[in-house]
Amino acid sequence: MNIKVIAVAVLLALPAQAEEAAGMIKTAQGKVEVVRGGQRLPAGPGFAVMQADKVQTGAASSVGITLRDNTLLSAGANSSLSLDQYAFNPTTHQGRIDASLKRGTLSVISGKIAKTSPDAVHFRTTAVTLGVRGTEFILEAHGEED
Amino acid sequence: MELFVPFTLATWLIALNHEPANDRVVLLPSADGRAGAVQLSTAKGELLLAQPYAAAEASSDGKLTGSTADGASVQARYGDTLAALPARPVSFTVYYLSGSAEALTAESAGQLDALKAELLRRPVPEIVVVGHTDRVGSQADNDVLSLARAGMVRQRLLDSGVKAQSMEIAGRGERELAVDTADEVAESRNRRVEIIVR
């Protein structure tokens, strides 16, 4: 009986947790859009970025995002960045980041997750996967248009 | 005849652009001076970048080629991207008297002005209030106490008219000691609350 109640509580809690923002757009220049569930949303400073969002920039455009674990990201012009998976526990600092840069440029300053769970932070292009252990780097990708 | 020359040149340039360009990675020097690393994996192999400005190209078929970049070339190629990075988070720390979630030490009260100034410098600033304890008591109790301390500070900030896009709280318990101690050691420097502005 108790287990059933807990199971129901867990199930009810899960969707709420998945809805939690992964981060926030802090800087934006030019054309910045977030593709979410098939919709293309114009985005600017204050926009809450969610897991599974795809952030895209146009020509002469850029965007900067701070994730909940203090990971800092910025994408340059003509970029397409997907935040495929994001989880962060603010008590333990454990979590997971899986992001992919389809095209364009990305700079990254890693945050709390890379410090606590160094094998849980990955950035990908179509050609290469980066495992990130507490550092700052740049990534440039030339994948196909999607 | 002259007309054909630019035409041919243009065709060649377009063809060049359609060559698949390599993906690139450049490791940057970390601001905190810690040596970070990025492990690259492709279908064809692996490469570890562990020195500042260590760089690599990955071809679309997975071939990895290591190289070295420098500050000027990074700025020339990626300056616009780097300029879009959000400001690094900053933190303010306040300290607690032993076992209390309420009594702040005297020197901690004066940081409010600095905090407010930092909020004004940032677009859409967020605050995260993070409580910490020393190692007196169980981890579970300290998780509760650290969250309670964070909640108290949050309330004080709200009462003082601090406004941010959001103000979350977290309790780290005894996981992140400012000063390493054995278990059950009272240490005032560990009883603290960080106010992170990002």
UniProtKB/TrEMBL annotation, chain A:
Residues annotated as signal peptide: 1-18
Keyword Signal: yes
InterPro entries: FecR
Lineage summary: Bacteria, Pseudomonadati, Pseudomonadota, Betaproteobacteria, Neisseriales
TM annotation in the entry: none
Keyword Secreted recorded: no
Keywords: Signal
Organism of derivation: Chitinimonas prasina
Identification of the protein by name: FecR protein domain-containing protein
Residues in FecR protein domain copies: 53-143
Automatic annotation (TrEMBL), chain B:
SUPFAM superfamilies: OmpA-like
Subcellular localization: Cell outer membrane
Organism name: Chitinimonas prasina
PROSITE patterns named in the record: OMPA_2
UniProtKB keywords: Membrane
Highest taxon listed in the record's lineage: Bacteria
Domain OmpA-like: 83-198
CDD domains membership: OmpA_C-like
Protein name (database record): OmpA-like domain-containing protein
Origin organism lineage: Bacteria, Pseudomonadati, Pseudomonadota, Betaproteobacteria, Neisseriales
